[in-house]
Amino acid sequence: MTPTLKKSLVIGFTFNVEKQPASGERADLYAEFDSIDTIDHIKKALESTGHKVISIEATKDALELLVKTKIDAVFNIAEGFQNTEDRESLFPAIFEFLGIPYIGSDALCLALKLDKAAAKKIWEAKGIPTARFQIIEKLDDLTDLKLRFPIIVKPIHEGTSKGIFNDSLVEDKEALRKIVERVLRDYQQPAIIEEFIDGREFTCTIIGNHEPYEILPPVEISFEGLPPEAKPFCSYEVKTIWDDPKSTVCPADITPEQEAKLKATALQAYKAVNARDYGRVDMRMNKNDQDTPYVLEINPLAGMSYSPEVNHSMIKASKAAGYEYNQFIIRLLNSGLERIGLLEN
Fold this sequence. Notes:
Blueprint: E1 4-5, E2 10-15, H1 36-47, E3 52-57, H2 62-68, E4 73-76, H3 90-98, E5 102-103, H4 107-113, H5 116-125, E6 133-136, E7 151-155, E8 169-170, H6 173-187, E9 191-195, E10 199-207, E11 214-215, E12 219-221, H7 236-239, E13 248-249, H8 256-272, E14 278-286, E15 289-299, H9 313-320, H10 325-340, E16 343-344
Parallel strand pairs: 2-3, 2-4, 4-5
Antiparallel strand pairs: 1-16, 6-9, 7-8, 7-9, 10-11, 10-12, 10-14, 12-13, 14-15
């Protein structure tokens, strides 16, 4: 039975608009923010349901609007306006303080998403495969290196491949020290270093809050066709300079057994951090063990660009599952509205 609305709704729509970094700012500082085109298309999709939609850019000015406006629920894709390690949880925490229901994962899950080590510790505790790692807070921590090369170096509190460049995959201690030093200096946060899972990379999108969850067809991130100097992982260069719509392949060319394993592992990772409504899980399979997906991270605020020129794998998976763009946005909205109690079957 198709879910129906209990009443006509006022939907707040929170977002951050992408902008060019100012002189002296890092080139990737606003990489997580969304384009005007994406924001417009999501708003039109929400409005196509007949809801009244109120656009709210996630700045300090949004607070007064949220307090003064009667909003039934918020569709949230805001990344936060402060460049802090908990930035993605700021607006969900505000919604909770104001008593406004919202679609998407809660403040705790979004804070975990931007603490790569904390999320990995949870997955390890649950027996979910993830790459071995160490947290490096200062260069002297490298004297107690417990990992095997090759090693990939990441800022511990970033998303959208911020701070993860082509040279972030290192083969020796000299290169490791150099890249860790860059992360500590430029990002003012610890580095997380991981043993590199050398194999195929996939993403899985999950929708729902209880069985049966809807798990969309896995997407493979293909590194074929990249320049000779490109290393096979999702670096900032791969996502921007070398971006190619053909690099996301869906449905992925995998066996039914591999697909089942990817979906099962993604769901385990999703549930372990109490993600809700929807989210995307990123995984790799070791080339010597193609039956064991290793979880890289979870993204409860995955990209939703309408443009076919932008490689947002969640949108590619939705198309493979048979959704038109508006249908998919409404599917995500309804997943949250059902949980909140604003839909009935």
